[in-house]
Design a protein that fits this description.
The chain is an alpha+beta fold. It is 22% helix and 35% strand. It has helices spanning 5-29, 76-81, 109-112, and strands spanning 49-57, 61-68, 89-94, 100-106, 114-118, 129-135, 138-145, 148-152. The strands form two sheets. Strands 4-1-6-7 form a four-stranded antiparallel β-sheet, with no helix packed on it. The protein has a four-stranded antiparallel β-sheet with strand order 3-2-5-8. Strand 6 and strand 7 (138-145) form a beta hairpin. The longest helix has 25 residues, at 5-29. The termini are far apart.
Length: 156
Amino acid sequence: MMFPAGCATLRARLLSATAVLAMLMAAATAAPPGVVRADPADPAPPPLRHVQYTVWTEQPYGNAEIYYRDTDPPNWAEYSHNPYLYSPNVEAQVGPDQKWNLDVYLANPDSWAMVTTGIQSDSTAMPNFHCVLAVDGVVVKTAQGPKGALCSIRTW
């Protein structure tokens, strides 16, 4: 069956009219000129909390291994995939008059604030380590041990 030649022209005009109508509808629902629409903003991140870590020993010790958390991991899966990425390590000389202190800022210290310290793996020393964890100026955890100590709000 053949359609008359005029049908193709009519069909093209209908498609063109439909396209114009769609553009007019889109323009009518858009903001009027000079008015800016505000996209919903992402919620503000939680405020950062001041976390203070302190480590010392009762006997001078030259190379204390100290691991601490200075960054909130995005989630538990990311942390457990590579915990050392989120737990830097330093070696420090500590003693009764030589404390190691560090101030960091975390969004969720209840989950992520942590400092742990101990002797070198080949050492037999027992300098009796102490650690203190404070959040926003309030001591929330203390610990001590002959060869190491862990201060964390969360149970590991």
